[in-house]
Fold:
Amino acid sequence: MTIYDFAIGQTSPETPPVEAVKRAALRAIDLEGAEMNRYPGANGHLGLRELMARRESEYEGVSVNPELIALMHGSMQAVTLAGQALMSAPGDLVITETYTFSGMIAAYSGIGLELVGIAVDADGMPSE
Structure:
């Protein structure tokens, strides 16, 4: 029986194509070596943001501006920054599903947001 651990946001060590990642890393160093030694600005490396914008534009069929994409170090940074950006005052309420990402609970509690869990059914959260 194969066991899949969804407790943390981490792939199985056997999943990544290690040799392909090595080749890509060496190519990136050759192409972007100088850029890797500079701070990429507030939103992250422009080339990667342009690539992401192009991908999303193609997959989603909408125009995506790379200037509106910000790269994060991981999901926790994104979750925390979103909470901080949307919070008007400590104690603001955030409605989530009853069972939600434990990292979000810790991050939002840490910045002073109060989470309220709402039960969901097959159709999602109730509309009332």
